[in-house]
Amino acid sequence: MDVSHILDPLNDAQREAVTAAMGTRLVLAGAGSGKTRVLVHRIAWLIQVENVPPWSLLAVTFTNKAAREMRTRIEEMLGHPVGGMWVGTFHGLTHRFLRAHWQDAGLPQHFQILDGDDQFRLIKRILKALELDESNWPPRQVQSFINKQKDEGLRPDHVDAAGDRYLTQMVAVYREYEAARTRGGLLDFADLLLCAHELLRERADILHHYRERFRHVLVDEFQDTNAIQYAWLRLLVGPNDNLFAVGDDDQSIYGWRGARVENIQSLQRHFPGSQVVRLEQNYRSTGTILKAANALIARNPGRLGKNLWTADGEGEPIRRYAAFNEVDEARFVVERIRKYSTEEGYRRAECAILYRTTAQSRLFEEALMNAQVPFRVYGGLRFFERAEVRDALAYLRLLNNPDDDGAFERVINTPTRGIGERTLDLLRERARGSAVSLWQAAQDLIAAGALGPRGTATLVHFVDLIRNAQAATRDLDLAETATHVIEAAALADFYMKAKDGKGEDRVENLGQFVETAGRFRQEVEDDEADPLGAFLSHAALEAGEAQADPFSDAVQLMTLHSAKGLEFPNVFLVGLEEGLFPHSMSAQDPARLEEERRLCYVGMTRAMHRLYVTHAESRRLYGKESYPQPSRFLREVPPELMEEVRGRGVSRPAAARAPVPAAAGVMGGGDTGGFHLGQRVTHPKFGEGVVLNSEGRGAQARIQVNFQGVGSKWLVLAYARLEPAG
Ligand code: ATP
Ligand code: MG
């Protein structure tokens, strides 16, 4: 049998992992060492050489996109399509499992997914109903409390509040939330795993079936599994099954969402006889990029430790750009990208801009738009999250399941129907009082004549709208159904009349939504009976990944978190400033600071040929102006690996002004003439400013000050006539 196509593109260590005998295998290796490649080749090996039927394979990846790529790669290698294999994210796979077992799990057949935004709204409604003040009970905090419990596998009954008043109240909200969610036939993201886990735990017959079926379970990015995901895996992988997990403790970046890097160690305990394979050769990045990333991550204590090397050359130095402000930063990055795509023939998609927080993307989007460079934002305001798309989706959800309270609340007054707050409050009270959905409450109130004539009329109108649309779309396909409700509800008119100037965009998005519905192909055979339900789940699960046309050549914009597992020839890591990255919320806590450093490591190791790191000397963010210090991560990269790019493209070695680590507040590499970094100073001509940096000594000493009026300037200290301000 010819297996050269599976084994030739691998090095010895990778080959060993791919051809390993059955049993539990853990591939523990650094970024770009071929973990994902090994996983894909392992699957091809199992199917072709070990004659494992695809039916008995289950592979977990980090995004739906990665899952699709994985399947394509395997099919290419084998030369034929492989059906029956389950490849997807934890959410996608458990969703599929629950769809198949809705009855066993005690779920309504058409259960829908409650995404983050809907969850947030639902929590707000519950706080209101319980008369809890949002300033004492911030909905975001409640939301993360609930999700955290679920990620740990805890239902309200399992949380031990033990006389703690705060906890007791939180649990009460959690309980109320669960009741509302259940009434609406909704599952939130954490529920997908929680319910799937409970079902496997409680039903020996189902557990047995799946253990028999999935003889091979493979997991990518294992370091980021949380408690409930790991518990689900542990159940699913029976004593006769084979687990193949790949991961990197240095890339664990979801601790804040409950991911437990300790699972890597636990795995070796829970699966006796498991063997660890290490890969050390990196195939992605240049020697320089790798050295920088290695040096950075070496600052973290308690690592499992590994050393990455590459057979490739050193490549170009890492380029560091100190932008005057955030606008200049965006301008610089876009200019470079244009240069690489027009002069060097890189595709735009080979350039990525990576940032710490989504709020940073807007300026880059603007700069790209002005320069007429196509781009694609991942994880920003995703297509399925836009207000108009969510409105249209909410109508579809109501058609699918009128008891969906989230959808009901969303569209009862969109477009405006003159249903007053009072009527709505009555509805909510009724729903809560008799533990029914808002939809049911509406029928009850109408029947009881409990509303005034106007209230009744408007409500009847709404109920009829939904009922009629249900009847009218029974035999229509998805795109036709979408078109029908959008027209019946007169959504386009509503957006065009709104005075936010976005009417046309919104209507265009509605058009795109109809098209998406038309193109939608169900990936899951079990869902065939219910295309609308499948589409709605798809929308909920896909939100958060791509937007727009995935085939056009566009610059890639995303947060560092969503860049995991990806690679790009040119990477721009932006906003490397104290307070932004590392994030201010993490700077005080050593564990979180280490996670930020891992995030920076993930970002740097995405780069294949070129890495840019940028920071701004002044930044306006969330409406506030600040003069941030350059990120400590910049200092943790050996200066000889970096080259400073000055404005208008003049380069000089960064080493000359590389700040040395020193006592807090004093980070300049040179003589500061008694001023300290961050100090406010005044200059007779330039006015007031903040000391940002220094270099050189004695007569050569220069100091960099960011002046409020004229921006950042380097001044020769001896002549600068600077005074401390105030
Ligand atoms: P990450 O930790 O970032 O997820 P990874 O360990 O999963 O990285 P891969 O994405 O599998 O690494 O591989 C990194 C790059 O190196 C890919 O472009 C891959 O095709 C290439 N690569 C991996 N192994 C080899 C090899 N033996 N020969 C040539 N190229 C390889
Ligand atoms: Mg990978």
From TrEMBL:
Domain UvrD-like helicase C-terminal: 287-565
GO MF entries: 3'-5' DNA helicase activity; ATP binding; ATP hydrolysis activity; DNA binding
Family: Belongs to the helicase family. UvrD subfamily.
A Pfam family annotated for this UniProt entry: UvrD_C
BP-aspect Gene Ontology terms: recombinational repair; response to radiation
Stretch forming the signal peptide: none
Keywords: ATP-binding, DNA-binding, Helicase, Hydrolase, Isomerase, Nucleotide-binding
InterPro entries: DExx_box_DNA_helicase_dom_sf, DNA_helicase_UvrD-like_C, DNA_helicase_UvrD/REP, P-loop_NTPase, UvrD-like_ATP-bd
Enzyme class: isomerase
The organism's taxonomic lineage, starting at the top: Bacteria, Pseudomonadati, Pseudomonadota, Gammaproteobacteria, Chromatiales
Reaction catalysis annotation: ATP + H2O = ADP + phosphate + H(+); Couples ATP hydrolysis with the unwinding of duplex DNA by translocating in the 3'-5' direction
SUPFAM superfamilies in UniProt: P-loop containing nucleoside triphosphate hydrolases
UniProt-recorded name of the protein: DNA 3'-5' helicase
GO cellular component: cytosol; DNA helicase complex
Binding site for ATP: 29-36
Domain UvrD-like helicase ATP-binding residues, every copy: 8-286
